[in-house]
Specification:
Layout: H1 3-15, H2 19-33, E1 43-45, H3 59-67, E2 71-78, E3 83-88, E4 95-97, E5 103-105, E6 118-121, E7 125-126, E8 132-133, H4 139-146, E9 152-156, E10 177-179, E11 184-186
Parallel strand pairs: 1-2, 1-6, 6-9, 9-10
Antiparallel strand pairs: 2-3, 4-5, 7-8, 10-11
């Protein structure tokens, strides 16, 4: 399927989910993440969910990261440059929704991309080879291209993969894993 078709399909599928379904599946995804081979790492980049888009509630995963004394990094998006600035999440971090409903840090201690070891990546859809479809603005492809080559990229999804995304671009960055409520998909390349 084409990215545009997948965006429409999965936005519609997510709209059908109830609050309780989102909470339950988000908790199951967080628990499945315990099976990832990433827990020897220190710096984890986590997205904060856009509730209006029924994104996965990453609060459960955040609790696991905090319980394991991991450094959690969150981003602030600049829609003019299509770049993200990354900040350490602390007890003092003020979070505010931007004009697009994305919860972001107001300010804080900036973290260089070179420190980030694991990135939990938001997505709408993904395929069996680890390609993903986001909202189409390119923020994560730009960010992931700036990361170290060995950064571990983990998608989080309510749904199983599509067979193939047919219009992959050269600058699309593949995932290493995608975690669903039922398990973990690993992509070898």
């Amino acid at each position: 399927m084409l990215k545009k078709e997948l965006r429409t399909k999965y936005k519609d599928d997510r709209k059908k989910l109830t609050f309780d379904e989102i909470q339950l599946m988000s908790l199951e995804i967080a628990n499945q993440c315990l099976g990832l081979p990433v827990w020897d790492k220190t710096y984890f980049h986590l997205f904060l969910p856009i509730e209006a888009q029924n994104e996965i509630n990453t609060e459960f995963l955040l609790q696991i990261l905090a319980g394991r004394d991991k450094e959690v990094v969150i981003a602030k998006s600049d829609f003019d440059t299509r770049k993200m600035t990354h900040y350490l999440l602390t007890d003092n971090t003020k979070i505010q929704k931007n004009a697009y409903g994305i919860p972001e840090p107001v300010d804080g201690l900036e973290v260089p991309v070179s420190k980030i070891e694991v990135v939990f990546v938001p997505l709408l859809a993904y395929d069996k080879t680890g390609h993903r479809v986001g909202y189409g603005k390119g923020f994560y492809d730009t960010f992931l291209s700036e990361c170290k080559p060995d950064v571990i990229k983990v998608g989080l999804s309510y749904f199983d993969p599509e067979d193939t995304i047919t219009d992959i671009a050269e600058n699309d960055i593949r995932l290493n894993y995608c975690v669903t409520p039922e398990g973990i998909f690993e992509f070898l390349f």
